[in-house]
Amino acid sequence: MMRSFVNFMLAEAVNYLTITGTTKTAADYYADGIQASFDDVRNWAVNGTFGTSSLAASPTETSTIDTFYPAATYTTNVGTYKAAAQAAYAAQTSADGRMNFIAREYWIASFGNGVEAFNLYRRTGLPSGMQPTLDPEPGAFPRSWWYPQTYVTLNSNADQKADLTTRIFWDKNSSDLNF
Length: 179
Prior knowledge:
By secondary structure, the chain is mainly alpha-helical.
């Protein structure tokens, strides 16, 4: 669970609910989520997965990264992207319109974490307008996965799902999810 994910979840909550104890708006959390996503990717590229441990990027690698994509250029590009994303978000007149932008940035930040992206889409049906599948007839969108066979075999109260379109208890989204 990345800090950007938490910011996008908070943006969603403030977008739809009245949250006490915070002075931040959904737009603030949205901007913080975008910034955290960029910061974490850049930090990982420059410092390595484990920060200053022996597995961190060597000074030569850090220099190569900074030569290839200088920090000043990176900062400018992040600022430009973030300003455009915030302007598009601010132009939305409905909570659902704003949620589509929150979901899109959450989806992008979830690159490499398919579970979070899958659950976001399954829960909200957003973001819309993403690239469709390459298969023109991909079949129904999976709403859940099969129970493990050992679970069904060893638990006499468990019934295997009829198919992958069976919803789990919190899935209240419309049934028209598609690829």
